[in-house]
Amino acid sequence: MMNLRLPQSPMATSIARAFGAGALALASLAMASHASAAVVTINGPIAVPATFDGLYLNLATGATGTSALGTAGWDINPYLAGTALSFFWNSGSTPGAGGVATAATGGQYIDLPIGSVVSSTSTFTAITATTATVQFQTPGTHILGFRFFNENVGAINYGFMTLTSGGTNGFPLTIDSWSYEDTGMAIAVPEPASALMLAAGALAIGAVRKRRQRLNQA
Length: 218
Prior knowledge:
Blueprint lengths: L9 H10 L2 H15 L2 E10 L7 E2 L6 E2 L10 E6 L2 E6 L8 E6 L2 E4 L7 E2 L5 E2 L14 E11 L4 E11 L7 E9 L5 E2 L3 H26 L1
Antiparallel strand pairs: 1-12, 2-3, 4-5, 6-7, 6-9, 6-10, 8-13, 10-11, 11-12
Helix pairs in contact: 1-2, 2-3
């Protein structure tokens, strides 16, 4: 069996002492990921009203509202269009917001599998029709790839959103979380366990930082 030896930074060593030997690899992974990428994750849950207005969401800030005018910088608007879920996008930017789909001019939005990569080479569309969201109108958890204009960095960003539907028309609908890469690079949909590990690593690093701040202030 090959033994993997990871570099031991002072922060990683502190985490290992606090959380056990297994935390060392986790801390090193989290810090390496942070150094090479800038992935932002915003967690819900956020309930989407089963109405024609639905929910307007700013992907960069997490702000929500029930109208376009009342939600500054909104990017995506899931709503109940007649009898089923549909998506409305803010396409005022170039190349504009949209979801990963089977064809740039139509087709269905894709329910992405684990390992999918969302990037500038993905096929996006901003079509608004219940026939385009069929894969998201079935009960269960779904993953929607997207692009949007991030006003915080002034660039198009790529990401993915996890949604849970409880009915055959897409509702009740909950946005569980979404992640995006804020440097404009590609982003991959991770295994659920990997996502939890990275989140735990970030929490561990934050705990160590807070402890150090308290010690420095003492």
